[in-house]
Specification:
Layout: E1 2-4, E2 11-13, H1 21-38, H2 48-55, H3 59-67, E3 81-82, E4 89-90, H4 97-120, H5 125-132
Antiparallel strand pairs: 1-2, 3-4
The protein binds zinc ion (ZN) (2 copies).
Organism: Aneurinibacillus danicus
Protein name: Flagellar protein
Region (Disordered): 114-133
């Protein structure tokens, strides 16, 4: 399937990742640089900001690589990224525990509301379309 690379926008044949082979290669090179950087014991717990500064890699990009599961986080405990919704540091998924809980509740509430609206609108749906014509 042809798709646009989510990193550089180039059209490529999508297999499993949303980025093109060139960008995957770039990702792997960057991952290798970060792994090498974290190899010495004293660097293993270096915070993201320091890695970013020393290697000249944007923090967002490092966070993205962590999210893509390029790193064994039990070996690199400092590789955490921010929850999409708040400033809590996480190592898994997109949201911290409390935000994903909140989101799930919101989703449930929205679903219930939608179902209720559907019931309330029974029979009046045609009216909606007529008024738009
Ligand atoms: Zn690309
Ligand atoms: Zn959160």
């Amino acid at each position: 399937m042809l798709s646009n690379c989510s990193a550089c926008g180039k059209v490529f044949m999508k297999i499993s990742k949303p980025v093109c082979p060139d960008c995957v290669r770039k990702e792997l090179e960057t991952v290798k640089r970060i792994r090498d950087y974290l190899k010495p014991k004293e660097k293993r717990t270096a915070p993201l900001a320091q890695i970013s500064r020393d290697l000249d890699i944007p923090i967002r990009y490092i966070e993205y690589l962590i999210r893509e599961k390029y790193f064994d986080l039990t070996r690199y405990p400092s590789l955490q990224y921010k929850c999409k919704n708040c400033d809590t540091l996480i190592t898994l998924g997109e949201y911290c525990r409390s935000c994903s809980e909140k989101l799930r509740n919101n989703l449930l509430a929205a679903k219930e509301k939608a179902e209720k609206n559907e019931k309330d609108n029974d029979g009046s749906g045609s009216h909606f379309y007529k008024s738009r014509l």
